[in-house]
Write a structure and sequence with these properties.
The chain is built from 9 helices and 8 strands. Helix 2 packs across helix 3. The longest helix has 15 residues. It is globular and about 45 Å long. The protein starts with a strand and ends with a helix.
């Protein structure tokens, strides 16, 4: 199972990818998490990525593609994966397809989690993330049992710098301009499945499981 999860920032990609990867026993690969790991480790890639992330812009394709293709080649991704946040541009999608084709592989499905802009703003403004496992909570709709503490591993929760409203607006514009064209890219390949993301988490999960044939 090789799946690309599409959707704007705040649609619930990370939340759903975590559940789906557990249920289907495949890897969850999130490009944003990979960049934040580099940032935390103070690598050169992390420093470069930060410049773009802080502005709500995309990290350049060449470094992003290289980072994700390397990650996909790791042993835990052999049995399949859910890509969360990648591809985000048409050149990224083309590079992914080309790399897979050389191995006789392909992406199976590209579910699109659709959520309206006002709801995205509310979701990102109230998002808290675990520093250890990256699980996302929401202070209103999906609070942790104890404020500031992850239910799964007791990790500390924090709010992302780029979840501030000014940066969120830029990220949503970036999505419309650079990522939304992927909808027709996967539609042409007959892999796109539209999912109503404005339902409770469990209902979205059920729709996604149907979409990927599980
Ligand atoms: P993305 O990875 O697409 O940016 P997240 O999975 O981090 O989105 O979710 C964004 C925010 O919305 C988080 O605070 C999360 O708890 C919350 N959230 C996710 N799915 C839902 C849902 N179906 N209904 C309400 N809130 C949700
Ligand atoms: P969200 O979960 O809210 O959709 P991400 O964690 O996926 O956000 O991404 C955070 C930031 O990391 C993006 O705003 C962008 O700067 C960078 N980024 C993540 N994935 C990509 C990608 N595929 N291409 C370019 N930049 C990316």
């Amino acid at each position: 199972m090789r799946v690309v999860l599409l959707g704007p920032p705040g649609a619930g990609k990370g939340t759903q990818a975590k559940v789906l990867s557990d249920r289907a026993s495949v890897a969850h690969i999130a490009s944003g998490d990979l960049f934040r790991k580099h940032l935390g480790e103070g690598t050169e890639l992390g420093r470069l990525a930060k410049i773009f992330m802080d502005r709500g812009e995309l990290v350049p394709d060449d470094v992003t593609i290289h980072m994700v293709l390397e990650r996909i080649a790791e042993p835990d991704a052999k049995g399949g994966y859910i890509l969360d946040g990648f591809p985000r541009t048409v050149p990224q999608a083309e590079a992914l397809d080309e790399a897979l084709a050389t191995k006789g592989q392909a992406i199976h499905k590209a579910p699109l989690i659709a959520v309206e802009t006002d709801e995205l703003m509310r979701r990102l403004a109230g998002r808290w993330i675990c520093r250890a496992c990256q699980t996302a909570y929401h202070e209103v709709t999906n609070p942790p049992r104890q404020a500031g503490v992850c239910d799964r591993d007791g990790g500390a929760l924090y709010q992302r710098e780029d979840d501030k409203p000014e940066v969120v607006r830029a990220r949503l514009e970036t999505y419309d301009r650079q990522t939304a064209p992927l909808i027709s890219y996967y539609e042409k390949q007959r892999k796109l499945v539209r999912i109503d993301g404005q339902q409770p988490v469990e209902a979205v999960t059920a729709a996604l499981l149907r979409a990927v044939g599980r």
